[in-house]
Amino acid sequence: MSSRDRDWDGVRLHVVTGKGGTGKTTVAASLALALAAEGGKVLLVEVEGRQGIAPLFGCPPLPYEERGVAVASGGGTVHALAVDAEAALLEYLEMFYGLRRAGEALRRFGAVDFATAIAPGVRDVLLTGKATEAVRRRSGPGRGARRGGRSPLVYDAVVLDAPPTGRVARFLNATAEVAGLARVGPVRNHADQVMEVIRSPETVVHFVTLLEEMPVQECLDGIAEVRGVGLNVGGILVNMVRPPLLEPAVLAAAAEGAVDVGALARGLEAAGLPGHERLARELSGEVVEHARHMRMEAGARDRLAGAGRPCYDVAFLDGGVDLAGLHRLAGSLRDQGAV
């Protein structure tokens, strides 16, 4: 597939959100591997303190530093970072004010937790700020820089495993609120730099959902909310997709309760299974249930299509999620043109 067929060329910050339980961290990890294919270098960032990334890659818990966790197809690499708001604040105080010692004292007295508790927006600014800094970061002078030009970017892309859908718009827009409070100075400059990245065409918010009523509704509500605060909506990633087990005509009839129990019984008898008539009756119920579930999923897909965004299927992994499974999902995302 040529680069023209990729849906998100030019995007460097991929924010991934979804209702709790939809598997957004798994999808974010797969997306990072897909982006790193063909030699890319990608940073995968988590901000909720759950240490959800490390188990997927078979790694120990991540510290507050960027570490390589996987090699993608084609030789690209995925690095991961678990952002801690307290450590990010200490880093911020050192970077802009030279106050790391003062920050350590604040930490010992519990002032950091107090400040982020009474002003939750501050915590969100620190978390998003770390991700956007990685988007802008360039290698040191003289390291790969062209004569008269700037050094190359350290990462080709950053994937942010963001908070759930119900909170993501406020999380990403917190910096704009903080910027309104700080008219001048380093805090305002920092906020402006973060929002410049968050609101740029290089950033999109992807939504992970299941083909179920509540996740689909929350996905659609989240898309409307993110659009409402002026952020860019990316794609919809439908997770844990299972293929239909029957032909469309059979599914349509079964969804209406029409199953040829006699044909099932004859097939079971020919296979030499005992109690074939009883098994056929039980199996017909399973067929009807499966067909109605597939019809419900088709309706959910129609609702998602109404959002007008590209949709991608992320397959259900029968053997559980491991690194090999992530590579399979990454390959599928690339095949669908997601990255």
UniProtKB/TrEMBL annotation:
Ranges for domain ArsA/GET3 Anion-transporting ATPase-like come to 13-178
Q: Which InterPro entries match?
A: ArsA/GET3_ATPase-like, ATPase_ArsA/GET3, P-loop_NTPase
Which superkingdom heads the taxonomic lineage of this protein's source?
Bacteria
Tell me a Gene Ontology molecular-function term this record carries. ATP hydrolysis activity
Question: What protein am I looking at?
Answer: AAA family ATPase
Q: Which organism is it from?
A: Thermobifida halotolerans
